[in-house]
C-alpha cells in the first residue's frame, strides 16, 4: 500500500469520525430540547390540576411562553429551537443512512425516522418562529382545530380525520406498551449505567412513556369524535386533551398523575440524551 492510499484512508476515517460526532451532538441536543418541552408541559399541567395555571396553556406554546419570561429567555428559545433542528437532522440521517443497531437499516425503521424528521422539523420551525416573534405559533389547540377544519372540508374529509385519529390512538397504545415492556433498553448504553441509575431511568421511562401514550390516544379519540360529528371544534391539541382529564372521574388527581408522567418523560429524555446509542 503506497503513501497516497494510506493518506486517503486516513482522510476518510477522519471524515467519518467528524460526521459521527456531528450526528451524535445533534441527537443529544435534540433529546435534551425535547426533555425541556415535556418537563415544562408537565409542570404547567400540574399547576392546572391544582387550579393555578398562571394563564398558560399546557402545551408547547405554554412552555415557550414560560421560557420567554425567564432571564435570557430569548437566548434559551433560540437554543431550544437549534436543539430541535438537531433532532430533525439526526432523524434525517437515520432515514438516509440507517439508525444505530443491527436492524437500523431496515426500510420500516428508515420510514419511521423520516416521519420523525418531518414532525421534529415542524416543531423546530414553530419554536424558532416563536423566538423570532410569532407568538401565536405554538398554540396547539388552535392548530388542531384549523387542520381538522381544513381536512373535513376536503373530499372524504371525515374519513381522513377519522383515520388520523385512529392512527393516534394506535400510536398512543404502541408508545405506552413499548414503554411498559422497556423496549427502550435496546437503545441505551446499559453497560455504562449503575444499577441505581438504571432503576431511575426505568422509572422515568415506564411512567413517562405510559403517560405520553395515554395523551396521544386521548387526542386521537377527540379527532375521531370531530370526524363523526363533523365538528372541527371537537379536535383538541395537547392543552385541551390534558384539560379533558380534569373533567373525568377523579378529575384533578387523574390530570395530576398524567402531568407527573409527562414530567417523568422529560427527565427520561434527559437520560436518553446522556446514554442513548447514536
Q: Can you offer a commentary on this structure?
A:
Helix 1 crosses helix 2, helix 7 (195-229) packs across helix 9 (251-275) and helix 8 packs across helix 9 (251-275). Helices cover 76% and strands 0% of the residues. The radius of gyration is 20 Å and the shape is globular. It is mainly α. It contains nine helices and no strands. The longest helix is centred in the first third of the chain and has 47 residues, at 3-49. Residues 5-18 have low confidence and may be disordered. The protein has helices spanning 3-49, 60-68, 73-97, 107-131, 140-152, 157-180, 195-229, 238-245, 251-275.
Amount of beta strand: under 5%
- Uncertain regions spanning at least 5 consecutive residues: 5-18
Average pLDDT taken over every residue: 85
Using only C-alpha atoms, the radius of gyration works out to 20 Å
What is the terminal separation in angstroms? 33 Å
* Number of DSSP strand runs: 0
Helix content: over 70%
SSE arrangement, N to C: HHHHHHHHH
Q: SS-based structural class?
A: mainly alpha
Q: How many helical elements?
A: 9
Global geometry = globular
How many strands, which pairing sense, and closed or not: the largest β-sheet?
A: none
Overview in brief:
This protein is mostly helical and 278 residues long. It is 76% helix and 0% strand.
Amino acid at each position: 500500500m503506497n503513501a497516497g492510499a494510506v493518506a486517503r484512508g486516513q482522510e476518510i476515517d477522519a471524515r467519518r469520525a467528524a460526521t459521527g460526532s456531528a450526528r451524535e451532538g445533534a441527537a443529544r441536543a435534540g433529546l435534551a430540547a425535547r426533555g425541556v418541552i415535556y418537563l415544562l408541559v408537565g409542570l404547567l399541567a400540574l399547576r392546572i390540576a391544582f387550579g393555578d395555571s398562571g394563564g398558560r396553556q399546557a402545551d408547547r406554546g405554554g412552555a415557550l411562553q414560560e421560557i420567554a419570561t425567564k432571564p435570557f429567555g430569548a437566548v434559551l428559545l433560540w437554543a431550544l429551537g437549534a436543539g430541535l433542528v438537531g433532532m430533525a437532522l439526526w432523524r434525517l440521517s437515520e432515514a438516509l443512512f440507517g439508525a444505530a443497531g443491527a436492524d437500523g437499516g431496515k426500510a420500516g425503521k428508515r420510514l419511521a425516522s423520516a416521519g420523525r424528521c418531518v414532525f421534529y422539523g415542524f416543531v423546530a420551525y414553530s419554536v424558532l418562529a416563536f423566538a423570532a416573534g410569532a407568538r401565536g405559533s405554538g398554540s396547539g389547540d388552535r392548530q388542531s382545530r384549523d387542520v381538522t377544519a381544513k381536512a373535513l372540508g376536503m373530499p372524504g374529509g371525515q374519513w381522513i380525520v377519522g383515520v388520523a385519529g385512529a392512527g393516534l390512538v394506535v400510536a398512543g397504545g404502541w408508545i405506552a406498551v413499548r414503554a411498559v415492556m422497556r423496549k427502550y433498553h435496546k437503545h441505551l448504553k446499559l453497560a455504562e449505567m449503575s444499577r441505581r441509575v438504571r432503576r431511575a431511568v426505568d422509572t422515568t421511562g415506564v411512567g413517562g412513556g405510559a403517560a405520553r401514550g395515554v395523551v396521544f390516544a386521548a387526542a386521537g379519540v377527540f379527532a375521531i369524535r370531530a370526524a363523526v360529528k363533523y365538528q372541527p371544534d371537537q379536535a383538541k391539541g395537547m392543552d385541551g386533551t390534558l384539560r379533558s382529564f380534569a373533567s373525568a372521574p377523579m378529575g384533578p388527581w387523574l390530570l395530576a398523575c398524567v402531568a407527573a408522567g409527562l414530567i417523568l418523560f422529560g427527565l427520561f429524555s434527559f437520560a436518553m440524551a446522556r446514554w442513548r446509542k447514536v
